[in-house]
Design a protein that fits this description.
Radius of gyration: 36 Å
Distance between the termini: 101 Å
Oligomer: single chain
Mean pLDDT: 80
Strand content: under 5%
CATH superfamily of one domain: Tetratricopeptide repeat domain
CATH class of one domain: Mainly Alpha
Structural class: mainly alpha
């Protein structure tokens, strides 16, 4: 292309940019008033009725929003578009390890309830991880909730049957079952 063609193209681009700026809406200026309602019977009589009806013409100006009229309810199909929250455990090894570390901190500190919450959270983030169940058993044991400790240790052994400390855990399970049997009559007397 030659220089003349570039000059003409530049003029058209500048003219288009100026007209685009002229079409922009200034947010500080109020919108123009709505057009007067036609006198024929097919036109709606109230502005509220016209806002709920779709525009008949593509070039019709939009009506201003009346703050006293509540917005229409969302369509029923919109509920189907939002994804549902996952119902089962979410696999997240990083958060599982962090929850396990924080749970160990709480266990060493003596905050058993906080430690239990974190160990359960770790087992939800990574259900195949056996360590939270062992730590949960230790925490319940220190809290003197022996049956819960037995359940946690059993889950630990189900996940890791060839654990290096399996014999120790099995002995702890039998000891805790005895303690639980001894304490249940005491609780019944209270």
């Amino acid at each position: 292309m030659n220089r003349l063609a570039y000059a003409v193209l530049g003029i058209f681009l500048l003219a288009g940019a100026q007209s685009a700026r002229a079409q922009q809406i200034n947010p500080r200026e109020p919108p123009p008033p709505p057009p007067a309602a036609p006198a024929d019977a097919s036109a709606p009589a109230t502005p509220a009725a016209s806002s709920s009806a779709p525009a008949a013409h593509a070039d019709a100006k939009p009506q201003p929003i009346d703050p006293t009229i509540p917005p229409p309810p969302p369509p029923e199909d919109s509920a189907l578009e939002t994804p549902a929250a996952p119902t089962g455990p979410v696999f997240d090894p990083l958060h599982a390890q962090r929850s396990l570390d924080v749970g160990r901190f709480y266990l060493n500190k003596g905050s058993y309830d906080a430690a239990i919450d974190r160990f359960i959270e770790a087992s939800n983030y990574q259900p195949s991880l056996a360590a939270p169940w062992k730590m949960l058993g230790e925490t319940y044991e220190k809290k003197h909730e022996y049956m819960k400790a037995v359940d946690a240790y059993n889950k630990y052994l189900n996940l890791l049957p060839r654990a290096p400390d399996a014999a120790k855990i099995k002995k702890a399970i039998s000891d805790l079952a005895e303690k639980s049997a001894q304490e249940s009559p005491k609780k019944a007397e209270r």
